[in-house]
Structures are given as structure tokens and as C-alpha cells.
User: What shape does this take?
Amino acid sequence: MNLKLEWRRLRQVDWRELDVKEAGGWPFLLKVLCCILALLLSLALMNWWVIGERRDALESAERREVELLADYRGKAAEASYLPGMLEQLSTLELQMEQLRAMLPTDAEVPSLLDSISDAAVDNRLTIENIRLRAPVTQQYYIEQPFDIQVRGGYHEIAAFISDMADLSRIVTQHDFTLAPVAQTGGELRLSMLARTYNYRPVSDRAEEEVQ
Assistant: This one.
């Protein structure tokens, strides 16, 4: 094969008169160039259509790998704290059970009022009024407020308040009013709002949410 001759034929080609139907008669170098161009186009199409799609999938998988690795590390860190958290949860549940045991049931409220009356009598106070108010329903418990009005000496009233705080059931004290009683030789009248609480079972809260 005379490359010089083929090169001369290639240079003499009129590109405007080329016809694909007559490709068999084209100069050899032109055929080679066309084959190389077709090969390059094929490789470009393969890269765009096949390799490009898989490259995108690979990049997506790599990003997903980074996300999963970060999620794994976060969960591994959480898992390392799990034993301590479980221990704290167990302690809190025990404390909740103890506090719940200090809340009176509905049936125990009259007995609680009797205990408050006994504390007043033991401290030589005159009971003027111990009256229940309407209960107030909260999300996790029911408030049971009641008014207390007693009279007596200052130290006796202080001892009565202390005895109420030491009751086996939780009673909170609010809205204190302490005023002298006229013509009683130094007696004081104590008026207060007290509250005790009933625990609401989960079943009762669930029924309320359904309604």
C-alpha cells in the first residue's frame, strides 16, 4: 500500500461530493478516518448511555453509603449510652411508683380529710370548715381541691401545717390567709386552699382521646 498515493487521493477528495452509497470507492485513509470517527462516536454513546448511567448509580450509592455510615455511627453512640439510660429509666419508674403510691384514690379522699381533721384536733385548733370543691381533671391526674379554715394559736397553726405536710398522702397547700380573730384573746384564723391528686390510669386517658 502506497501511503503517499493514498494521502494524495485523500487531499484530492471533494468533501461536498461524497456520497455514503459510494463509500466503497472512497480513499483508504478516508475509510480509516470514518471508522475511527464511528468508533469514537460509539464509545461516546456507550459512555453516555451505559457507563454514565452506572456512574450515576455508583455516585448515588456512595452518597447513600456516607449517609448510612453517619447514621450507624450515631446509633452506635446512642447504643453505648443505652445501659445507663435504661438504669435511669428504671430509677425514674421506681420513683414514679413511689409517688403514685402517695396519691389517694377516690375512696381514700374522705379518710384523708379525716386525717386532716385529726391533725387539727391534735393541735388544739377549732375547725370552722373543711369543704371539698369540684375536682379538676388534668391530662395525667385529677386535682381534688378543698378549703380548710381553722382557728387557734400561732404555734398550734404552724404545727398543724407541718403535720399536713407529713401526711402519708400528697397534700399541697395554697392561698394562705392568716388573720386575727376579734375578741378571742389572740387567736388566729387560718384559711387556705389545699389540693390532693388522683392518678389517671392510661385506660381512662385513652378513652378520653377516643371521645
Q: What stands out?
A: The chain is about 55% helix and 20% strand.
